[in-house]
Amino acid sequence: MSRRRLAAAGLSVLALAGCTRGVVEGGDPTASAGIPPAITVATADFPSFWLAEQIGGDAAEVETVDPAEVADTDADLFAYVPGIDPEVDAAAATLPAERVVDLSDDVSRIGSPRDVEVKDPYIWFDPVNLSTMAQTLGTAMSKANPAAFEAYQFYGLRTISVQSEALQVDQRLQEQLNPCRVATLVVEAPVLTYFARAYAFDQVPLISWEPANDPVPALYYTIDAEAAVREAAGANGAQAIGVDTLTESAPEDDLLQGLLDLGDEVARHQNCPLVTPSSSDRPG
To answer: Whole-prediction pTM value?
Structure first.
């Protein structure tokens, strides 16, 4: 992990550390904290759902709502990542601001390669961003809970646990991907913007890729464009590799496992000679 990424991540973790003094490392991070009353959290995407469950534990009831249900939710909080679904964005704007948690609020967002005015929503493809998202949600959940002291301690400890795991995954990916000899990721849709920035790749849209000048061993696609990408891959001696955006689910219902699986795929196809143990060897 670079010093810049480590420093930024460390500040994110320390922001919630004030309520954790005297806690012994190891074991259940909330063993010494009282469990506050449960709050309800509605979510519209899997990354938000996963974070709410990890941070909330026994002190949160988490549900996923369809876009048509967002405006009518009576949950204490509605957590989401804007930009994934315009219908969700419009419905979220009708809710009271104090009940809405935009998990991208504290993340440095990147303009889409197709339109720099549109921010790329796939922020969770960088585990350091995921750590920041956890802090944003943990703070909002603490504020929303009526048992303020217990809530800040309980959610704060669980937030730090999530952040620690996210940073361990980031370190694993840094070690796995920094030696890659093929630095170009050719993608059908620019969903790997944050992943590419974090691990020193150049993301090139398939439509602007010049195979004669920049040959690559793999082309990456989302499900909707599989046929077209397989055709392009076959014509240029490359493999077509599917990318799960993780917006609806993740392997083993674990967002970090989804990132590790992606790292394995990229390492195998971008000529990364120093491949670390398989993603099944989950850190944390």
So the answer is: 0.86
